[in-house]
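Working notes for the structural subgroup meeting. M.R. asked for a predicted model of this chain before we commit to crystallization trials. I am recording the input and output together here so anyone reviewing the notebook later can reproduce the run.

Input as submitted:
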Amino acid sequence: MALKEFKLPDIGEGIAEGEIVSWKVKAGQAVKEEDEFVEVMTDKATVTITVPFTGVIAELRCKEGDVVPVGSVIAVIDAGAAGGAAATPAPAPAKAAPVAPPPAPAKAAPAPTAPPPAPKPVVIPPTAPAPAPVAAPAAKAFAQASPGKVLAAPATRRRARELGIDLAAVAATGPRGRVTNDDLAQAQPGRAAAPAAAAAGAAAGSRFAPIAIPPAPAGRTEERMPFRGLRRKIAEAMTRSKYTATHFTYVDDIDVTELVQIRGEAKKAFADKGINITYLPFVMKAIVQAMREFPAMNSSLDEVTNELVIKKYYNFGIATDTDNGLIVPVVKDVDRKSIGELAKDIQDLAARTRDGKVTVDDLTGGTFTITNAGNIGGLFATPVINFPEVAILGVHAIKDTPVIRNGACVPGKKMYLSVSIDHRLVDGATGARWMNVVKEHLEQPYRLLLA
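Returned structure, recorded in token form:
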């Protein structure tokens, strides 16, 4: 047999782990190179990974729904005698090594210097377990989960710096060997544990104990399905955002009577090109102008370096409702594109998102997010920030309404805009002034031509 381990590959920049959504193969199945192998979901996208070489599936080491770090072995393939003969020597010793060599090195090391090293190992082991018999297993588990890097949320890293704690010396109890704020509290016995526990909830979204839902009453039914895939990723992202960014929402109503007229003319002009001109391109251009006056609205906080990162580029995510959940593809370089080009990009991204054909690049690099629920209904909403961005804008339905012009009440069209902002980085007054600039450009759309 020529057994080859298949490790979860590095799917994209900044991706540390992936969730096994579905296996396209099963144990014992013969496969050939480039066959569909496994569907993996990351924080950025869902991708289908293909088989790297021809053979037979010897073992699937992960179940659907498992979250595994990049580089972990998720399957073993028997490449057969054809292509595996040359490769057999390498994997075989590697597999034998974990079983046989551990005792060998232990004996081989003392052999060269038999008397001196022997006493040291004998003296140290009794001393190590004595001080912390409980922390030792946790530290060992942490080392297995992350041998080269300490796993911790940015807020936890910041708190460790404030407390003067070396994360590498902290026994980790979080998922996959992650250091939590509770762990920091244990490392600082003199400090109160309650504030640390509260901060841990804020940083990791784990403030509350899991809740078990009792079964349905007698005579009633219910449906249960695994909470995984995109829905779980959305839940994790929203929880982290609400517990990290300090949200505040500012709402204003916009008189878009003139905008409705201009958009109608633009829609007719681009109809023969197959481009649907919506209101979003106008909103996006107005946002760019407002951000140029208030750059903090296009920023993020680097919690590791404690730096406010103000971005000089404008990549706007468009929250898109799909059958599989909410996905946010990103329109790049909004400031460099015309209304028609933006409309085409939005149309293309929305179609590919709903068809499941977006790439990791389509879903990364955003600096600001827009969510549009106007076609569904409602008055306005308080959207959750797409962390680590600093703000998200909700665009809502345009409705016929009376407006006052030159002292007279006349028919008009209005809509609400609601922006949720991270109050850690942007003050309320700044957010309000930013919204005023957006409002001016949408109420007087000719201003967009002068930008």
